[in-house]
Amino acid sequence: MKKFLSLIIILIMLSGCGNNTAKGTVENYLKKYKTLDSEVLVDLENIVEKENLNEDLKDKYRDVLKKQYKDLSYEILEEKYDGDISYVTVKIKVYDLYQAQVDAYNYLENNREEFTKNGIYDEEKYLEYKLDKMQDTTNKIEYTITFTVTKDDDKYLIVQPTENDLMKIHGIYNYELD
């Protein structure tokens, strides 16, 4: 799943699609996740295909990501304008997949024998366990993200979110480092 961090940069169309506010553009961006927009699904597929997983585990991984996206909730907290640049602050709530991964790793460390086959570590068993833990988690976490939005010819465009902000959207941000 480490590759996931570097592949998260989802290239969703960032224009306002008819909205004439920075706030509306951010809402459209987040709605694309919630509605599993075709652009989001194409990028999701690219992420999954780059992982070294068998087909069953790829299916589980897809399901984890789809659940995260569909169940994401958000609230626009503030919209500030500074000329052609706007800052839209959003509180999001997502599944805490980071903690699910930490818990799975800790379980592996304390129960390594459960993840062996003929005495040899079986990474596939562990990955299945970790994905199951991620899929089953109901714990959620809240983050605040400030999106930068620019105005270009009466269209609002989101500046590419930071990697940390994308990790927050995906629920895998390592908040222990804060």
Q: Outline, from the CA principal axes?
A: elongated
Main sheet strand line-up = 1-2-5-6
Domains counted in the coordinates: how many? 1
Estimated radius of gyration: 18 Å
Fraction of helical residues: 40-55%
Please describe the biggest sheet, giving its number of strands, its sense, and whether it closes into a barrel: 4 strands, antiparallel
Low-confidence stretches: 2-18
The helix-and-strand class reads alpha+beta
User: Distance between termini?
Assistant: 21 Å
Nearest-integer average pLDDT: 89
Helix count, DSSP H or I runs of 4 or more residues: 7
The total beta strand count reads 6
Strand content: 15-25%
Order of helices and strands: HHHHEEHEEHEEH
